Amino acid sequence: MTRTEYPWLLPSAIADPLNQELPGDRGRERPRRTVRDWIVDTVAFLFAAGIGLLAAAASREADNAGAVVIADQLIGALACCAVWLRRRWPVGLAATLIAVSLVVPVAGGAMLVSLFSLAVHRPFRPVAVLGALALAASVATPFVRPDPTTSVTANIIAGVLLVLTAIGWAMLVRSRRQLVVALRERAHRAEAEAGLRAEQAQRLAREAIAREMHDVLAHRLTLLSVHAGALEFRPGAPPAEIARAAGVIRDSSHEALQDLREIIGVLRAPGDGDENDRPQPTLATLDALVAESRLAGMRVTLDNAIAAPAAVPAATGRTVYRITQEGLTNARKHAPGAEVSVSVHGGPGQGLTVAVRNPAPDGPVTEVPGSGQGLIGLTERATLAGGSLEHGKTDDGGFAVRSWLPWPS
Prior knowledge:
The protein has helices at 11-15, 35-61, 66-82, 90-103, 108-121, 124-144, 152-233, 239-265, 286-295, 314-334, 374-384; strands at residues 299-304, 339-347, 351-358, 388-393, 399-405. The protein is α+β, with helices and mostly antiparallel strands.
């Protein structure tokens, strides 16, 4: 649903609610009358005819010539029949009937019906203008066509009250219709916004899963690539080394599959998870990550100054783990054999700083293919956590990754 379907809800209309348009305000846009329209039009015709009959009886009681009485009745009948045209030409019909009712009181009922329809289907400005003319006509009618059975003051008061009642009632009906239309439009808009929010949440979830999958699997698959390359370039290695490399490949494959199961488990519905699923990594599991890298043949020194890793918020600890994991993965890819240093410092209120550094590689490096998105993903992860991340080459040709993350006191 677009705003062009409801032009009365455009900003200009909202700024001036009295000039809002409603469905059916423009008579030519209505292809045909509904059953409800026929019922309403019939009731309106009968109301106009009833008022006209009362006025015609008063005209016969007055000292009017017979031709005048007949003319009043004919004009009143035409005015009542004209009520059926009020939906198509409400403004023109109301103006005409106001002028006619000034000299033919029998048309007063039809004039009230036309005013009611005008106030329901048209904005405030034309209603105010024609309403003022109708009030003026109600004041002038007792002088143009006096009624000997009642006083002039009573006629004026009755005419003014009838006009104000018709316009006030109609404006109340219009306000209610405007409220219904506004609530319906608001409901449709809320439904559309809810759909957009759901799509955005799905997109963000996909991006988060993709980043998590890269952070987790890149570490494992790099181990596979490095040790498989070692077996390829050293076919004559001692059996013990071959067995050790094959064991690392097997363990890394199992770990990669397990991590993949955990990531895919995020997509499961609540209650479908496996009770044996491992918890998400935190700062307390950083030692295990370093030990795993050392087992794979890396030289890693860890300087963890956090005495109580469990006190670090889970999200912050997980981010530190992923940054360290990506730093070790990149060092293994681009500086094999180099000693990697990992340091974690900080405390509550001052934040948490993690740094991963490696010097330049000693010899030729066999390039391991990568996506090039790991550091970008880490930067986004640190930024979303309220921190920052810097990375780049060092003066000695090595590489360093340093991140600061908030740790509330």
